[in-house]
Amino acid sequence: MTATVEPTEKTELPSVWMQDLTWEEVEGYLAHDDIAIIPVGATEQHGPAGPLGVDSYVAITLAEDTAQRAGVLCTPPVWFGDSSHHGGFPGTISIRTETQIALMRDICRSLVKHGFRKIILVNGHKGSNLPGLVSSVRGLHEDEAPQAIFAVADPLHLARSAAPRIKDTREHHAGELELSHIHHRFPGLIRTERLTDAGVDFQEVFGGFVGDDLFGPAPDGVEIMWSGAEQRAFTPTGSFSSSLGLSDQKGKDYHEHIVGRLVELVEWLRGYTGPLGTVVPEPR
Amino acid sequence: MTATVEPTEKTELPSVWMQDLTWEEVEGYLAHDDIAIIPVGATEQHGPAGPLGVDSYVAITLAEDTAQRAGVLCTPPVWFGDSSHHGGFPGTISIRTETQIALMRDICRSLVKHGFRKIILVNGHKGSNLPGLVSSVRGLHEDEAPQAIFAVADPLHLARSAAPRIKDTREHHAGELELSHIHHRFPGLIRTERLTDAGVDFQEVFGGFVGDDLFGPAPDGVEIMWSGAEQRAFTPTGSFSSSLGLSDQKGKDYHEHIVGRLVELVEWLRGYTGPLGTVVPEPR
Amino acid sequence: MTATVEPTEKTELPSVWMQDLTWEEVEGYLAHDDIAIIPVGATEQHGPAGPLGVDSYVAITLAEDTAQRAGVLCTPPVWFGDSSHHGGFPGTISIRTETQIALMRDICRSLVKHGFRKIILVNGHKGSNLPGLVSSVRGLHEDEAPQAIFAVADPLHLARSAAPRIKDTREHHAGELELSHIHHRFPGLIRTERLTDAGVDFQEVFGGFVGDDLFGPAPDGVEIMWSGAEQRAFTPTGSFSSSLGLSDQKGKDYHEHIVGRLVELVEWLRGYTGPLGTVVPEPR
Amino acid sequence: MTATVEPTEKTELPSVWMQDLTWEEVEGYLAHDDIAIIPVGATEQHGPAGPLGVDSYVAITLAEDTAQRAGVLCTPPVWFGDSSHHGGFPGTISIRTETQIALMRDICRSLVKHGFRKIILVNGHKGSNLPGLVSSVRGLHEDEAPQAIFAVADPLHLARSAAPRIKDTREHHAGELELSHIHHRFPGLIRTERLTDAGVDFQEVFGGFVGDDLFGPAPDGVEIMWSGAEQRAFTPTGSFSSSLGLSDQKGKDYHEHIVGRLVELVEWLRGYTGPLGTVVPEPR
Amino acid sequence: MTATVEPTEKTELPSVWMQDLTWEEVEGYLAHDDIAIIPVGATEQHGPAGPLGVDSYVAITLAEDTAQRAGVLCTPPVWFGDSSHHGGFPGTISIRTETQIALMRDICRSLVKHGFRKIILVNGHKGSNLPGLVSSVRGLHEDEAPQAIFAVADPLHLARSAAPRIKDTREHHAGELELSHIHHRFPGLIRTERLTDAGVDFQEVFGGFVGDDLFGPAPDGVEIMWSGAEQRAFTPTGSFSSSLGLSDQKGKDYHEHIVGRLVELVEWLRGYTGPLGTVVPEPR
Amino acid sequence: MTATVEPTEKTELPSVWMQDLTWEEVEGYLAHDDIAIIPVGATEQHGPAGPLGVDSYVAITLAEDTAQRAGVLCTPPVWFGDSSHHGGFPGTISIRTETQIALMRDICRSLVKHGFRKIILVNGHKGSNLPGLVSSVRGLHEDEAPQAIFAVADPLHLARSAAPRIKDTREHHAGELELSHIHHRFPGLIRTERLTDAGVDFQEVFGGFVGDDLFGPAPDGVEIMWSGAEQRAFTPTGSFSSSLGLSDQKGKDYHEHIVGRLVELVEWLRGYTGPLGTVVPEPR
């Protein structure tokens, strides 16, 4: 693991990563800007071809590229998420939702204390992290930090329009799109010789009540919980959908689309003047 | 408030509500069935025309009708949800996500202890309750109750196919569909003389990053938090979308669609034999 | 379950229940009054004749009638209480004391935020809920809400003078007085054909250290804990004292006495000017 | 503060206090007995004449004398209780109910782990500690320690029959009975020159809804919370009832009555064979 | 256990212990001073010769003597600490770190509320309590009590220079120095006939990675956790190092050295004017 | 930030980092080994010359090099620690001790679940993280994971013998040794033009009670807490000791010494057969 001193395109700072900056450099940044990105991932199985860090690498590369293009700062990444349902596979490391809520609140509280006022959580773990992330900043904003704006960003929503036209097959955990993304940004990390068309039979496991394509049409459905042990039973490889369609181009298209949208988000936030973040609640 | 002794259509029991049954009656039920429904709502502002209990009444009527048609039992309702973002309006009562997680875990734990094995949380509060509800039962299933199946059901997903064809305008908090639903099932509760076309200017408040129609096409977006005080600033009436199109028929169509799908869920669960709920994790 | 639009006798509002009012109606109420009642019950076994909701129905009817007569508002009810010691019987749903404390604090905090200043918790579950309820509001008042007055009301104390003259036999869990109360207010809910004289032999189970009559003379005693499993062993029916003496008149006398006293409490609070609720602690 | 090596009357051990015994001595005790007493007090104002430790000394002397006479062991005392409502007076040290619950559970869990099976919490702080103490052991017994019996003992209940005939005036916080007890057992601790007839006007502060005599007849009442700041406002001396009637004899009579009853409790527990403590709940 | 009315040498108060003072006396003290000492111990096995209360007695005597010589006040002692690793021996009572943090914060918060501004935690339990104690007051100082100074004092550090020259052999849990200290201050508490040279073979159990002398040279090491069950396996007597060298003189030298240094600490704090305790953080 | 596929010297795996491995590769590793290293750092100011990530980079490089040389695996790093006392400087991100305890327990629990039995936490944040880290794994080992061994490793202790001979001046936060270490391992990260001899006057701020050299002789002292705001007051640059003596050679000597010792720890653990990790506590 090497320190990465990535100059931003738009600032004088030697890196977009706070861990690579001194406090004086961050203080200088805060004199003219107040936006921070927090990459939040997970460490969990991603089938035979994907490394355990897929979700974290997704968050890291989206955060980093957005920050470089938009000229803002990132905090160090959070490598651990809510992954108990993948816990049947070795190497998966899961934190409880309560822990995640506390962790994210502490991180955000520190940022707000220093004067950051627009904070974007870039999630790389799709739906599984969202409950904790949303709960964390929703409560923080209501109770402690009315002066800051919090956004939770996820490829699941940011690539809503683009993903269907990029991918060839249905996309789910460890599918062609997710792995193409990593393959494009972190060449060598995907074990391409281990790509597989193994998937989960959603009809059998979940009736018709859970969609089998994260970017496809969804049934009139419900959310059904499954445990790590159950997951290993219904998908012995850990793959939820085929990854055979992996390609660098798909990863590039997907990445560029999301980063483009995130840059738009930063630009909008930069010029935003309210009402969010400007209404001070009356004392009780 | 009156006790409601509603005979089910399919069982001998005098009510589908556990609060109206004796322990012996529940014990008798458990001798041949193991499904329970928990209605979870909220107490929060629903504009000038909707009473504070809208979300709870939605959950209650969906649970009750499903239970009657499918011959299963309901627990008493949970009237309080995660509503801090509506807290700028008097009468809104919000519980923190952590409280909600603890509360739902305690309720479910009791049910599992008695032998219930398939538990459906019927949410009437749409997206705001989902983080807490999902977090609650996901962790419980992983850590304590591998033998039970938990589903979280919400109109937002169950009416996905039907809502667009029922409603006439975009639908959001306190919109025509939600209020029609209450109007149909609880005549007199909606103040029809106070229906309004007031709504939130999503473009102004959230840029183009948050969808303004819960059942319509969504942008490549993110989740942006807002506080109760901010909400009162950007929608002084509390209405997020027009409720002028309210009609009993819309409410009926919406209700029947969702109940129909919930009954299918119950039937599927009744015949379900795994893998969910049947895999016992190995000791560490 | 039907929505209940119960007009109060003293206000213009269409119901005493906040869930049936709009936020504008609650705001109007707060312009001239600041009292709220929270009914808190339980869902737990009440012997062969009593439904699981007895304690909640007790709280609901006391709150509702008091509110109607005194012209104040009620929040939706809390259906779940601290009932682990009844957990050996199917249908009992218990929440932990910590959960109850958090839940009640969240509810009360919301009320105080809106301007309610005199909050009455009407408990229907007797002694078992009191530790959690008292702990909840005592800490809230000290730490967060010095400007509000909190009272915890319970039939155990409110009927202290009247119960001994109304009842014929010793009264304990699922006894004649409790069931008469429900029988009077919710005709049809008590399975009168299942009334029983089964009871607990307090001498055998608890030595002479626990009183066997909630409204009778008590020994020089202690509190002894018992679990749900133990309870099922020492009272296989769940009945702690005879319910054979059930009568509508007893229920009526008991109910009227308690509601009368609660109305007096509301009147006293309405005119109360301190010192409670008026002393602002000095900053440390 | 000196270590107190108080030989019991009935065992060979050099002290009834575990802190003064070696682990081998406790192990020896556990070979033939399994009863432990935990004294729980408070550190809070007791008027001009009573030291801050009154409640703790009450618990300590009751536990110690009971242990000596009955031949059982005591743990070290817990000096801190739930005293926020006395917090307006310097020297009062209060712990939150949640802290108290956690603390007592940890202590009891350790005892159960070693083989103690009958555990008596002797409270010296009357009603204010009871919610936390009861909540603590009730949950522990249900969830973790079904094999142990827990009793919570308090002078308020143990002296129910005797107190009225011993005392001359109404008795409340820092009253003649409480201070006589300390005066008798810890001569010199009471500042007899500072005894006072200052008291709280319960009618004015609490209407007729709170009793003004802990051992006298009680009204049809409710529990009303008050803060430390409010208490200082309504009783500038901290005294709730006259202590002028203090006498050594009253203290002796009161002490002997309670200890006598506690010894009876120990003897009953020693011979107790169930059902409490012997019913193992079935796995869920 | 007897109340101890120990007059200080430097004040008019009848005792250094708050539990033995009235609130008026504490208020008088606070008119001219603002220092408090909190003795924190443990109840855990100390080998065949040491009673379970050794660590608490250490804290008590250090606190008491320091207070008397320096003219400051002590709170009642905390008898329970973080002792799970000794839990294999009967009589050991351990509280979890989270409980300890909550407990100490509550105690300190009360003191700060009354005006105490310099608070010394005197620990008698050496390294095992330090994580909880430091965590407790570090967070409290940062978040709630910037106006107060907190110090955590421990013989391990206070006797750093003196212990090596006083003791004859390596010193670890239940060693000659610790037991000599108790022997000197609480004659009769040590079972001198049970002194032992039994010890732990640190090389075998911990490799060369954990030092075997708390006051001797330490290896380039790490901290390795052990459980109560493991401890009983690797030291069946509970003794970690020889106690055969016990002597009153060693105890006296050790005690006087530590108390002397604590008195210097009090004197320094008394005259201290900042920066600690005087910097108010800017609002966020 | 780039993914780092660092082959170990002793295994066939393409990386020592689990995030870069697939679950199958981790499963393969667990077939013959059971050791894991968790690098734990902080994000906090390190003076004008050191980046905010210093402590995390220390943990990362120590963990990585140890893993490569000893042939074991690392989890992804934890970038956030207990840094509230540095919170006066922008960019410092602190998590509360309670959050840290929960986070580390969750991570370790996942590892134990998969079969890891010897877990080394490599801390890069010196004393400030130790309370949380030790508390976390001590409780986990006692209560949930008796079968695993946990070690907490820190440069403060691992370089005890070597640091004094490597460094030229006293070493404290952001001192010459810490920055040399980063300079050696991550060339370019230290702003060498901003090295400074600014330091903290420990005598003035802490009397003589806190040592000013982490690797030098320590006084008979205590731990004194300071807040982030206070720190900024007593060291406006954030530097606690001179960093002018920075050199690549010092960093190399320091690094090699610590890694060497960590490799010895791994080797010892690899061959370790008990008693730690092999004693199963008896059921209560």
TrEMBL record, chains A, B, C, D, E, F:
It holds the Pfam family Creatininase. It comes from the Bacteria. SUPFAM superfamilies: Creatininase. InterPro entries: Creatininase-like_sf, Creatininase/forma_Hydrolase. Keywords: Hydrolase, Metal-binding, Zinc. Belongs to the creatininase superfamily. This is Creatininase family protein.
